[in-house]
What we know:
Elements: H1 2-14, H2 18-36, E1 47-48, E2 51-52, H3 59-74, H4 89-102, E3 109-110, E4 117-118, H5 141-156, H6 166-173
Antiparallel strand pairs: 1-2, 3-4
Helix pairs in contact: 1-2, 1-3, 2-3, 2-4, 3-5, 4-5, 5-6
Amino acid sequence: xxxxxxxAAHPLSxxxxxxxxxxxxxxxxxxxxxVNDSPAAQTGVVVGDGEVGRExxxxxxxxxxxxxxxxxxxxxxxxxxxxxxxxxxxxxLTSIAANLLxxxxxxxxxxxxxxxxxxxxxxxxxxxxxxxxxPREGYPIELSVLWLRCLHQLTRLHVRIPGYDLEQQSxxxx
Length: 174
């Protein structure tokens, strides 16, 4: 499951198990490639074993953080690796950011006036329908912090997304 893989990547990297953490990020990269190449690209869904899973507003941002931490440990060449013949990690992260900036079909989007991530209820990690939790519609602060980290990472990688100034979005989000 993608949530378990995301949860595993961080401590593996911190504990120095870089090869295993890299395999986890590789698996997740392939999953995000499948999602971002499908009609569901803007919904933030995560796939597991070839099937589309539940929708989420935070998993792509946790994935970006896990990627950043692993690249800090193993080197920036991680961003240029094309896992299993798919797009490189850099392109997958760019696609995640572009989809958030444009807005997802499910309503998850970056509020371009504030720089914060807006999420409908039942999409953040604390509030899913698996099982049903307390609805959290609005601007969950942890999503905006993760978004800011993603923006900083993409800015360091000199990523450009047509129609958006990532440095300006970063300043706004802060």
